Amino acid sequence: MVGSANNPDTAERSYAELHCLSNFSFLRGASHPHELVHQAQELGYRALAITDECSVAGVVRAYEAARKHAIKLIIGSEFRLDDELLVLLAPDRRGYAQLCTLISHCRRQADKGNYRIQWSDIDNQSGINLDHCLLLYRPDPALKQAQQRLPWLAQQFPGRCWLLVERLLQADDEFHYQQRLQLATALQLPVVCANNVHMHLPQRQRLQDLLTAIRHRSSIEQCGFHLASNAERHLRSLNKIHSLYDQSLIDETLVIAERCQFCLSELRYEYPAELVPAGVTAGAQLRKLVEAGARQRFIDGPSARLRNQIEHELKLIAELNYEHYFLTIEDIVRFARSQNILCQGRGSAANSIVCYCLHITEVDPREVSLLVERFISKERDEPPDIDVDFEHERREEVIQYIYHRYGRERAGLTATVISYRAKSAIRDVGKALAMDESHLAWLISQLDRRDGRQSWQQQLLQLGGDNPDQRHRLLVDLVAEILDIPRHLSQHVGGFVISAGPLSELVPIENAAMVGRTVIQWNKDDLETLGLLKVDILALGMLTAIRKTLDLLNQAPDASEPLRIQDIPREDPVTYEMLCQADSMGVFQVESRAQMSMLPRLKPRNYYDLVVEVAIVRPGPIQGDMVHPFLRRREGSETVDYPSPEVRAVLERTLGVPIFQEQVIKLAMVAAGFTGGEADKLRRAMTAWRRNGYIQQYQQKLVNGMLERGYPLEFAQRICRQIEGFGEYGFPESHAASFALLVYISAWLKCHQPAAFCCGLLNSQPMGFYTPSQLVQDARRHGVEVRTLDINHSHWDCTLEYTGADNNDSDDKADSFRTQGAIRLGLRLVKGLSKEAVEQLQKQRPETGFGSVADARQRCRLKRNDWDALAAAGAFKTLCKHRYQARWELLEDITTLELNEDRLITTSLAHSADSQLAEPKANYRTQVQLKAPCEQDDLEEDFQHMGLSLGRHPLALLRERGLLNDCVCATELQRYRHGQLVKVAGLVTNRQRPRTASGVTFVTLEDESGAINLVVWRATAQAQRHALLTARILKVSGIMEKQGGVIHVIAGRLTDISEHWQAIKVKSRDFC
Amino acid sequence: MGFKVSSTPSTAKLWFYLYFPLLPLEMLYSDKTLKPAVLLDQRRARLWLCNEQASEQGLKSGMAVATACSLCPKVQLLSRQPQQERQQLESLALWAGSFSAQISLQNDNGILLESASMLPYFQGFEPYHRRLQQQLQNIGFSSTIATGHTPLAARLLAHNGGFISTEPEQHLAQLGQLPVAALKLEPKTQERLIGMGLCRLYQLLQLPRNELASRLGAELLDYIDRLRGQQPDPQPLFTPPLQFIQRLDLLHEIDNSQALLFPLRRLLAALEGYLNSRQLRAETLLLELSERQKPDRDACATVRLPLKHSGGEYRSEAWLELWRLRLERLQLQQPIIAMQLSVDQFLERQGVSQDLFVPEKNTQSQRQSPQQLLSRLQTRLGEGAISRIGLVADHRPEKSWRRIPSDQPAASINTAATVTAVPATTAPKGYGAQRPCWLLKQPQPLPAVQLQQQIIRLLQGPERIVSGWWDKSPIRRDYYIGRWPDGRLGWLYRNHQGEWYLHGWFG
């Protein structure tokens, strides 16, 4: 008998709550599933049904909690039809599948977040088969429909239908209760009681009222009768339940609970069958594919060591029954390869030799000695995790392939649960408290989430002043309460579930916001809890860029053998040298300012250095204070010592500093004595740290474990701090290894094929950290010729031109094995120009190009806006005097042109402003000659209409006018000493939001020679925030800081000189 | 070919445009504020208007709220009140009645006045302009004014710093220098013009009409023609209402009676314009001040101040003087959140003597609406004597109904902060069936012994009501129906401390 041990009464007085909403009935339930389970257990309930409204989104969390307790969890769902209400419960696996099917049906008929149910849906003649489900029916308050409804339901659910009675101490409670009991007697139906639970404790009423107000988009005060009149909808004590309901009703709850034997652990993932041919086992099929791959990958066959590794991995996979998982991924990747879509796997299992042979990854196991045990562990028995990145522009093709291959019934995207965070909490709570929205905007703007000294909640409290009014106090309290309460389901970026049978029998499916997309009601943590497998189909811009770069190189006139990723020479010293110089704009992952200032200090010289580089410049390691010890040890200024050989084995490859998530897990095992299972829980606590904050319980265990094993306290505490940092943004080695490969590939391309690489990046926008303007400037500084947009030469994409290119004579590019071309800017850069227009243009364009503006208009019928956009971007430069004139001419109505068609043909070549044609009216050509733009106007127009300019840099113009005489340009900075006073000026290209924890604002300036990195300390920023926050061109006097080849200017005085630009423009106008 | 300057003498046409750039912001504070304040856009993400103090701190319209707050953490962020903006503009139009018979409200915080026909009454342009300037200053809104020979010309010049002239040529010359961006053209048209290097209006005017039309559309030509007066440009005219009732919601509560004079000045200015345009005088004014709701009261109380000027008066200055005296004597019990000024008694402008002989002339102003009748009754019987009962959506019995002041329509009571009038349909089913008709004003304590000894017998219950945590009167009670020994049925409750109270009787 289950029951709370300290209360002998409850042994005989037990109860099962069958109608309980968690906060996954969004904005209705006010308690987390685990809170409900825990409280029900405390109260001595025998069972608890989680019956969220048309949903099972919260049940996995409840299941996770119930596993730890002796309480039975029942899965069900509530449906509302006007004033009437149904609770359906799943007694067994079939019943569960039926319930999921009904939920899917109702959800799929409505918009995202809603559902629609009709009585016909539960009619066993026409609706969905529910012959295993149990039904509780709660009639409308006035019992208007019940007389007819109940007999019908009893017929639909023979022996499985109950009248549901709930006493919530509202007006006429006793009368309603008796009335229902009489009704049941009259109809000879069983009655059962429940409490319409919305929260685990009555104290949650405040939050529940708040959620109600938010749901009705109203303030609490205006919410009136939408609010509950009391706090009775909680998990009530057994005493109270016994005083409210007849014993027979309570007994009936136990009868029903007894009939419900379904447990979520019964959900076994069944793999899609089509990946294995008939008569072959999955294992044999996998072996066949791996062997075929191995023959391709290793031309002389795998070495003995590799052969052993293959056998070892296959054995492990077989023992864990993961063959189907690898086959599923292989199938998707094979499709991508067949479509020439680049992809790259990463994640716990991706860096295995099996995945290398299956072409899931390009990380060559010969280069990295990554042991698969690090990623798949028999002991841990956790499903392998492989994420596959695809080219961002073509991921949709892969998704459509999956839908096509498995059908929408069997493939679905996982959900992401969107919960209340600081901003949304303040906004919604504030509105519900009828606070002024502009005041809320102000409050939000005043919070500094990165302030290490004070949590934002404390800051919020202080914003109310010394004596905050009641409303502000309520806001602070309720924001704290609503935090982490789920708000709605959203679509995960790319997590897919594929099943053997209909997916909707495993988990309900609902509509996503995006048309044609559906999501399942569980997120990836839920799937992991249940041991279900998922595949992450992610989008990565860099893959697009790399593929486009390779395509460009393969189209070069001297291209012979096609260049593939695997053909790119590995461990090229020149490439590493380039990275050591922080010359990494455009390179995957290491192009950010933080990464760039790390490169010259970390000095990556091999692939594994890149793996570390990728993982170390992240908030996790930075917050955990791992970066500086690692740098010091790498520079040799700090000795590496290991407290024990076990720790050495774990940390040696990162010089004694834990940098990867896997190392932390391993450390917990070897140094603190965690079992595999505990370590796994720690890992999940780390990833879920932000969500639940229960990592603390592991910290004590870690410290104790390490002290017991003789490790110093200081060491133990440092490890704990580092784990906390990881909790925020830990980076696993298995992901870093795959990313590092792309870092290398992109770096190699930038180093040896700068023109093609820049072109590939431009054609993959938007992506990366930098704008097309910055990318083009960088390429030009690397000797790449860039040619302007031209109506007669440009294509949609940026292209490489090989005729007349003059950049191949430099010696340092001698090692390139393809001729460099010149970049011809593509028309995709033109703002507001349609792709269809460009296609037509390219089709109609003669070999020799259009002869004139009129010729182009004659041949192509583009929309006015398209002509306008082309002219504005300066694409007619070779055909027309200047862009102002081109725009004027191109805006001419086409019908006017057609009227003069004859003349057009005869005179179109006479392209001068001669006056003999100046007869009014009869002449199609305009008499208007507009004044040409000045250099500054040209620059502005370039930026406005194509986002970059090949003209002189604005700063060069200012310098030419003598306005920056005292300023040093970016490239000259290197000549200055550490600590020297300098003045610099530039366009503000990047301004990291101020008010960081350490008080630093990072600003990047750009002048005609390159970028200048500014560091602005808090005091400077506060004193000069106007210039800092609003200037577009900034002049700065400051102090040089040079450290390990990294240059910063510590800003002193900031001067906004933006008006110089307007000023010289006015001047130039006045003089011309 | 360029445009020809029209040779017809256009001195006959003259418009004044009064532009109140900060009206939506300035109307939100009832005193000249010296603190930086800004008005946010609809989405409350960016600044829309900044007062002078905010501009001095470097705030600009279009700036993100977050940036503004980091630049100037003390800035006061305000939200738009579109309905009140409209009211305020109408009030200004009433005021402007002194200066023109043809007034048009413009939806960019401006008022257009036809002035040519008014100049003779003011002895010419200069005095007219001077009077206008003086009165504008008294109103206390930032403004720029401009003249123009067409409505559009006046509007553009007012929006671009203002310009005063009587000569069409000067207007044109001034307009020519305006940047194209100031013309408020369609964004696409504007982008095209600037993209062809046509940055100022005069450049545009130099281009041949037909070429311009074929490239940029007939709308642009139409615009230019309206600007130059070559196309009629009729404006919707503002008609003053028959009654003068002007309400002002104060964004800041006022607790000092003298501070009421500042906002009152604006209402009186509107009154003067109104009286001028209708050639009337006012004999009795009624000022109603809405008090902030007291915690122990159900509704906002109103202070009603009638003020009579024997013989009638129309000048705002004279009325202001009277009010100053009147308000000096006033002691405010509660801060004031809104004020309303109305005319109780009008007099014709043409001499008092006539009234003696033709009393019927006053019939129009004496005709009383039910509203007026009520307000008169109310002044006679005392405040709060007349009211009706409304049902309110609140679970707490003492909050579930309220007296609605009789002069307030039922629909408008949800403007009071805490209450919504609830149509019966939204109340829960069966609501009210078990509630007594007579609620005691204060629940009366009942000795627990009466219940223990079953002197009072509980017949029904409990109905548990736990609600109201959000304000100062939360309750936690179990309600019962009990029978008294004499057979009366009472509604009683026990609070969470176990104390018993009688709350009402069933009739």
Keywords:
heterodimer; A: 1072 residues; alpha/beta; seven-stranded mixed beta sheet; 46 helices; 22 strands; disordered N terminus; B: 507 residues; alpha+beta; five-stranded antiparallel beta sheet; four-stranded antiparallel beta sheet; 25% strand
What does the main sheet of chain B amount to? 5 strands, antiparallel
Q: Which structural class do the helices and strands of chain B define?
A: alpha+beta
Could you state the oligomeric state of the chains shown? heterodimer
For the largest sheet of chain A, list the strands in their spatial order: 1-2-3-4-5-6-7
Compute the CA-based radius of gyration of chain B.
30 Å
Q: What's this, in brief?
A:
The complex is a heterodimer of chains A (1072) and B (507). Chain A has 1072 residues and is of the alpha/beta class.
Structural overview:
The complex is a heterodimer of chains A (1072) and B (507). Chain A has 1072 residues and is an alpha/beta fold. Helix content of chain A is 44%, strand content 13%. Chain A has 46 helices and 22 strands. Chain A has a seven-stranded mixed β-sheet. Chain A has a seven-stranded mixed β-sheet with strand order 8-9-14-11-10-13-12, with helices on both faces. Chain A is globular. With 507 residues, chain B is an alpha+beta fold. Chain B has 17 helices and 18 strands. Chain B has helices at residues 23-26, 52-56, 65-71, 82-95, 125-139, 151-159, 168-176, 187-195, 201-205, 209-216, 218-228, 261-278, 316-328, 353-357, 363-366, 370-381, 448-452; strands at residues 15-19, 37-40, 47-50, 76-78, 103-106, 110-114, 144-148, 245-254, 280-291, 302-313, 336-348, 387-391, 401-405, 438-446, 457-467, 475-483, 489-495, 500-505. A five-stranded antiparallel β-sheet of chain B has the order 14-18-17-16-15. Chain B has a four-stranded antiparallel β-sheet with strand order 5-6-1-7, with helices on both faces. Chain B starts with 14 loop residues before the first strand and ends with a strand. At the A-B interface, helix 6, helix 7, helix 8, helix 17 and helix 39 of A face helix 3, helix 10 and strand 15 of B.
